[in-house]
Structures are given as structure tokens and as C-alpha cells.
Amino acid sequence: MRFALHPQQSQLFSLIYIPMATRLSFILFLGLASAACNPKEDREHSHAHHHSSDYVIKLSDLEKFNAGDGEQLFQMEGKKFGFEKLSFAITETQPGGGPAVHYHDTEEAHVVMNDKVTYLIGDSIFTVEGPFVTNVPAGVNHTFINAGDSILNLIAVFPQNSFGQYHEVRENPLLN
Questions:
Q1: Do 141 and 158 contact (CB within 8 A), yes or no?
Q2: What is the total count of domains within the chain?
Q3: Is pTM beyond 0.85 here?
């Protein structure tokens, strides 16, 4: 439900001193009255008939496969799960493990909360410790290795409902 004041109502509040509690009550009343006058909008935004299964995707529901040396990947291709502009993958990468050098036709973001990762993106090699987000531009060769001592959970986010083309270029030069 959206609460919006008409410009004349906003002017009323700025010209007349009304205690804050009264102003908030009046704003709430205006919002409720507006919703009551527009039941279609209220139905469209209502989540009363949805179940948690409408919103939650379990890891066990995702496609799982071996994605490289010491790396398992869980993929959620958005269009298969009702997303319009989102896909992602979650890694379980062993220490010292990582995928082959590759690139995608779309940009990608890596989200890491508390692990250490060494990247090769384009010609740059660098190591970073979480929490961080890495920007991987579309069409740029990249790879990484888990530079930490425990399993790395990296979340790769893609801004479309499919992964598009995956282009493997060569073996990972960062692997020991």
C-alpha cells in the first residue's frame, strides 16, 4: 500500500502546527482511505494468499554440477524460477580450487561475505578478502581461486533471466 499526500495536504502540514502523532495518524488515515477507494491496486499488491514456497528456492532445487578443479556450482537460471531479470550461481570452491578462464556475454557480480579470493580479470591479478562485491565486465576473460583455508561460497549474480553463453578460454593459470 502506498502513502502519498496531495500537494495541498503537504502545504497544510507545513503551515499549521499539528502534533507529530496527530500528523502520522492523519497520514495513515489518508493512506487507508486511498487503498479502500482503489481495491484493484490493493489486490495486486496483496501477498495474503502466497505461501513461502512462492518466494523461497532451496539449494536442492538448483542444478548442481562440477564447474572446475575443486568447485561445485549450484545454478539458478532465472527464467526457470519466475525471475524476469536475474540469474545467479553459488559456488562451493575448495581451498586452491577454481574454474577455467572464461567469459560471459553479460556482466557479472561476485558477492563474497567472508572468504579470500585471488582473481584474474582481464590482465589484472589481485587478492581480496570479504566482504566484497567484484564487478566482472561482459566479454572479459576471468577466473579465480579460493585463496583461503575453508570452502568458498561465492555468489555470482547475472542481470538477466538466463546465463547466456559461457565461453571457456583455457585452464586456470592460478591453480597450484
A1: no
A2: 2
A3: no
